[in-house]
């Protein structure tokens, strides 16, 4: 596993690591063995740097002799690691990196992604935003591959349903103060502020959105983040609508029941936003190896293509054309709840894997 153990995305990495270990355990019935061989998880810190991620991938492949790569929290890192997976001919099971290009323009056959991508988010929330919140939109996102790919995915869907994106605004992922960027939003005066963000400073971003009165001036929508983000938004975000990949109370299935129960027992709190994705990656790895009877990518690729498996959100299926896992997605409203000291997502609609399937956009496929 290569992920951002340190840096702005460290919180996501912690969720991912816990989820992967639980997924491997669940899929092996607690033995942590597959095909009669023990499973060993080696975690390397990419620090959020693509160059570091590349070097850690080479180290894992050449020195440690790993059979499968998993990660990362960062799309730019995942792009760098994917190149090494192709070079060394090993499977790279991606979660939670969400940039579309990993399963479109920069696709290679060794990539499989259990995490949702930005177009799946956009197909879940774009139409609902325009029809329910407003038609003039400013889109704030990080100034990196994830942020720009998110804007590229969401904005055409806003426009498809009659919305107008007035401007894209991009801020550094490690920004300490968002006031300058939010002042631009106030001056543009859209009906809707769309926020696409990832990282530990999301807490600061949403605090400043509240402090500057944007929740009162306009509708604010987002791909809703992890527990820290919900705490940071606080009561000012009650009533806000948005897309969320996972919240532990939303799915109703035996896999999620097991995940919630075991995570609380071991870590003293429920699973978080990307814990479910890590678990799905672990389950997919084990089920793929079982089906292939091998850890060799030449056997795993045809075994994984088209494979369906049960994970925390329900049924996931790797689409053969681009290896993107189609999966249920959620559109929610943030509400007060007596059992939580932060707003929690209330389900408005669960969209099926088919409803949120992005177009296939792989050159030559």
Summary tags:
Rossmann fold, Leu-bd, alpha/beta, Putative ABC transporter substrate-binding protein, three-stranded parallel β-sheet, 365 residues, Peripla_BP_I, seven-stranded mixed β-sheet
Summarize the structure.
With 365 residues, this protein is an alpha/beta fold. Helices cover 40% and strands 20% of the residues.
Description:
- Belongs to the leucine-binding protein family.
- Keywords: Signal.
- InterPro entries: BCAA_transport, Leu-bd, Peripla_BP_I.
- Helix content is 40%, strand content 20%.
- It has 365 residues and is α/β, with parallel strands linked by helices.
- It folds into 2 domains: 192 residues, 3-Layer(aba) Sandwich (Rossmann fold); 148 residues, Response regulator (Rossmann fold, 3-Layer(aba) Sandwich), CATH 3.40.50.
- The strands form 5 sheets. A 7-stranded mixed β-sheet has the order 9-8-10-11-12-16-17, with helices on both faces. Strands 5-6-7 form a 3-stranded parallel β-sheet, sandwiched between helices. It has a 3-stranded antiparallel β-sheet with strand order 13-14-15, covered by helices on one side.
- Helix 1 packs across helix 10, helix 7 runs parallel beside helix 9 and helix 11 packs across helix 12.
- It is globular and about 60 Å long.
């Amino acid at each position: 596993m290569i992920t951002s153990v340190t840096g702005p995305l460290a919180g996501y990495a912690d969720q991912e690591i816990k989820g992967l270990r639980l997924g491997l355990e669940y899929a092996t019935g607690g033995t942590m063995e597959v095909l009669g061989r023990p499973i060993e998880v080696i975690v390397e810190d990419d620090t959020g740097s693509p160059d570091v991620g590349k070097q850690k991938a080479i180290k894992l492949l050449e020195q440690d002799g790993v059979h499968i790569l998993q990660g990362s929290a960062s799309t730019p890192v995942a792009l760098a690691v994917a190149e090494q997976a192709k070079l060394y001919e090993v499977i790279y099971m991606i979660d939670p990196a969400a940039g579309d290009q990993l399963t479109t323009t920069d696709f290679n056959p060794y990539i499989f992604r259990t995490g949702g991508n930005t177009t799946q988010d956009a197909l879940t929330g774009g139409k609902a935003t325009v029809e329910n919140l407003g038609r003039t939109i400013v889109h704030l996102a990080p100034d990196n591959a994830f942020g720009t790919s998110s804007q590229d995915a969401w904005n055409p869907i806003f426009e498809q349903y009659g919305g107008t994106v007035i401007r894209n605004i991009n801020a550094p992922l490690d920004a300490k103060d968002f006031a300058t960027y939010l002042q631009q939003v106030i001056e543009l005066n859209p009906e809707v502020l769309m926020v696409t963000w990832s990282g530990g400073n999301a807490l600061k971003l949403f605090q400043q959105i509240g402090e500057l009165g944007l929740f009162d001036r306009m509708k604010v929508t987002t791909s809703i983040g992890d527990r820290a983000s919900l705490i940071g938004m606080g009561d000012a975000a009650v009533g806000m609508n948005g897309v969320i990949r996972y919240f532990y109370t939303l799915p109703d299935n035996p896999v999620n029941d097991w995940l919630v129960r075991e995570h609380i027992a071991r870590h003293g709190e429920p699973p978080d936003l990307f814990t479910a994705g890590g678990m799905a990656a672990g389950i997919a790895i084990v089920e793929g190896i079982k089906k292939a009877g091998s850890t060799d990518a030449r056997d795993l690729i045809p075994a994984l293509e088209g494979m369906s498996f049960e994970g925390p959100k329900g049924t996931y299926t790797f689409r053969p054309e681009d290896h993107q896992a189609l999966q249920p997605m959620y559109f929610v409203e943030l509400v007060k709840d007596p059992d939580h000291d932060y707003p929690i997502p209330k389900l408005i609609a669960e969209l099926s894997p088919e409803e949120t399937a992005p177009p296939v956009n792989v050159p030559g496929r």
